[in-house]
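Summary for the steering committee. The consortium agreed at its last meeting that each partner would contribute one worked example illustrating the joint modelling workflow. Our contribution is presented below. We chose a case with several input lines so that the handling of multiple components could be demonstrated. No manual editing was applied between input and output; the record is shown as generated.
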Amino acid sequence: MVEPVLEIRDLRKNFGALKVTDGVNLDLRPGEIHALIGPNGAGKSTLIHQISGSIRQDSGTIRFLGQDMAGLGMAARASLGLGRSFQISSLAPEFSALRNVMLAVQARQGPSFRFFRPVMADKSLTDPAMAMLERVGLAARSNLPAAELSHGERRQLEIAIALALGSKAFLFDEPMAGMGPEGSRSLTKFLGGLRREAPILLVEHDMDAVFALADRISVLVYGRIIASGKVDDIRNDPEVRRAYLGEAA
Amino acid sequence: MAAREPTVNTLLALLLMAVPLVALAIGEPFYITLATRIAILALAAVGLNIALGLGGLVSFGHAAFFGLGGYVAAILATHAFNGEPLFLGIPGTTSMPVIWFVAIAICALIALPIGAISLRTAGVYFIMITLAFAQMIYYFAISWPAYGGEDGLSLYVRNSLPLVNTAKPLPFFLVCYALLMLALALFWLIRGSRFGAALQAARQNATRLSAVGIAPFNINLAAFVMSAMMTGLAGALFADLNRFASPSMLSWHMSGELIVLIILGGKGRLFGPVAGAMLYVFFEYALGGITERWQFFLGLILLGVVLFARGGLLGLLAGKVQHG
Amino acid sequence: MSTALLIEQLLNGLQLGVMLFLMAAGLTLIFGVMGLINLAHGSLYMIGAFACAIVASATGSFWIGLIASLVAAAAAGAIMEVLVIRRLYERDHLDQVLATFALILIFSEGSRWLFGSFALYLDIPPLLQGAVPLPGGGQYQLYRLAVIGVGISVAVGLHVLISRTRLGMRIRAGESDREMIAALGIDIQTLYTVVFALGAALAGLAGALVGALQSVQVGMGEPVLILAFVVIVIGGIGSIKGALVGAILVGTIDTMGRFLLPKTLALILPASQAGMIGAALASMLIYIVMALILAFRPRGLFAA
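What follows is the complete predicted structure of the assembly.
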């Protein structure tokens, strides 16, 4: 059995009386796409926040590449190789698409306490950043400020940033949200290939994409994983159908 | 549009240089003092612009560093003049380079804890806590009688620099002008550097910066300290210009004025503080010549700029900010 | 040190505290409801003091002056809100700081123009002249006690206003959800003007009350304003309860520090040095306390 890249054990988080994360166990293995689905308010985003370090869990452990993440902030986890995209695009709006990606390249190269060399003339930053934009198909828009990109382009830019970080695992929170059918299709294709670089924990509402992409699916309802397994098992699981798919259908 | 800002900047730099030369030619040395005042205030504001313009850190307490710089100059000079050692037998000095170094070092040492505590907060809390720290230093200065208390501290003669006669207005202006240009060069380098990229990203979206693995706190703290160091150097020069370090250099009005300089000129722009200081000193002089109550009109102008002309003077002259 | 002296100082601290509360309550209410930081709040304090001094000297009645201070400050506040402040709600804090800093310049220089740089004096009304005996000997000014009483009544009144009345319900709604109050059909623009005028009136009241203890002059609002900022930062911006606790804390710590620190230091240092160091430390004390509190609770004691 291969060692999982990301391993979550008995994770718990309460907001007041509400159990948003209620004893979650989850892992992400090399080369797979693990989809996390569930109805709105099931606690999917809160779980992503805890993994990436923007919210602290109450109890339980998160191990990434064998290392306990307790006490590490968001920045530290990101520099260990945990790349994420946000449910609502989170970019530096005044910076061009290229500069947004360059920031990730720069972070990967080491501390940012370098005060004199101009970044725009630094090929070790611009070249890899440009290459990432080409991979996600944004090269032609590289000079536009992030704020002026379309919704779908911003999602692509977030993925380019996660790629540029050299992430060893990706956390993607609803990357298809708000994309047209065309965009969803091309992004689905892209993510399908991406799993060879690093495994993906994918939160997504678009079931076509989930069924097309996922190697495994876990279903989160009211903070608990009620089912976890291969795509077909989940599709046919009666409890899942009742709690989730049944509602959606 | 993109090419206009460098032209405007060059013109501003030449204009500031021309004022004292013209003043000398027409025999009005007073204008040299005004130009020196502009250069020093601009230097202080360039410092603040690192934190405020690039990092979006609205420090309402930069007068603390401006005043500290001023008091360092006055205290060292007073000890040297009286021949009394400071402490542990260390003598005072009237040498400007030493004074600048000490002023910069002290500001860094004080800015570090102030920044470390203040940056745990954000938004309005940050504005108010920086204000409160500056008030703390202000009240300390006025209630500590050893260095003049409320009366401030005079310098008997202007401090000295090798090879330059600082007592004469023009050489002293040139020193201040050179330091201002150096500071602008530093600001320009920092803005374009990796550090500058991280700092500007921290202003635009701190979560994004964390998500690529750079902790905003460290970046902001470094920016705050550098910003304080530059403003402190300006304070030391200001005390030398007036031959006086006054508690008003530490007052919250001063902190407000430094922010005003940046906004009048254009926030986050390289020459914003220069344009702002020119406008401010011009208003002070021109309006002050007409009425004693010039600050009333300054208030009206400032209100107009904030409500209706948010790009400041450089926004007017050179268009919107360009990002690479 | 006698008990009476200690009680007197404690009462002085309390009196400073309730005055700060009157200022801080308005500031924190305006921030809580409208998200606005108002540096010109000190100008409203000054306007209250001037209105009281001028009307009291013209009519010979402190009480008419006191009413005038409320009316003048509320009116000034309402005008300020309609002409300037209203344009700032959607702006960032930097713009708010600058615009209200500009208002301070306008108000301060404007009143110097109108009233000159000389201080005006306001007498304590005959009804409240004299002193009351303190336990343990000594006496305390009746007027200061009355000021404490006014402060406590205002605190209670504000509590009732916010928790029991229709206006209070709207204010609470405004704090939690602006869109909801719009959905409820409440005219937000009027609500904001009313809240601003209410905060202004409290500041004006504080100015008038303090005016009889100190002189009335331009710039009198600024030290109080900064103390009030310290208060709301300690208490948690937006929280009236925080403003009350913070105000009493700041009032007592500041007063007791100035009283006790030099005496305490005198136990270990020569008297002249103890006085000097004690006074310098005391003047910094509340800022040190604030830094400590924020180091552990960055959003204040009662963060909203």
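The first strand of chain C starts at residue 131 and ends at 133. The beta strands of chain C are 131-133, 139-141.
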